[in-house]
Amino acid sequence: MDQDILDLEQERDHYKNECEELEKEIKRLNNVYYRFLSKDGKAFPDEE
């Protein structure tokens, strides 16, 4: 029983860390996107 709890806690921590990494990547991509928008005012290069 204790091992089951430890396994679940370890799995939870793994996914928590993975979520934190994904959140960092989303923030990074948002920063890149908004820097691009502010540079030329267009969302996409082919937009007129």
Mind explaining what this structure looks like?
By secondary structure, the protein is mainly alpha-helical. Helices cover 81% and strands 0% of the residues. It has 1 helix and no strands. The mean pLDDT is 86. Keywords: Coiled coil. Residues 5-39 form a coiled coil.
List the helices and strands and how they pair.
Elements: H1 2-40
| Poorly predicted tracts of residues | none
Q: How many DSSP E strands?
A: 0
By secondary-structure content and strand pairing, the structural class works out as mainly alpha
Provide the gyration radius in Å: 19 Å
User: What is the residue-mean pLDDT, rounded to a whole number?
Assistant: 86
- The shape is rod-shaped
The number of helical segments is: 1
Report the end-to-end length measured between terminal Cα atoms. 62 Å
Share in helix: over 70%
In N-to-C order, the SSE pattern is H
- Kindly estimate the percentage of residues that lie in beta strands according to DSSP: under 5%
Coiled coil: 5-39
Keywords: Coiled coil
Please outline what is shown here.
It is built from 1 helix and no strands. The protein is mainly α and 48 residues long.
Record keyword descriptors for this entry:
1 helix, about 50 residues, mainly alpha, single chain, coiled coil
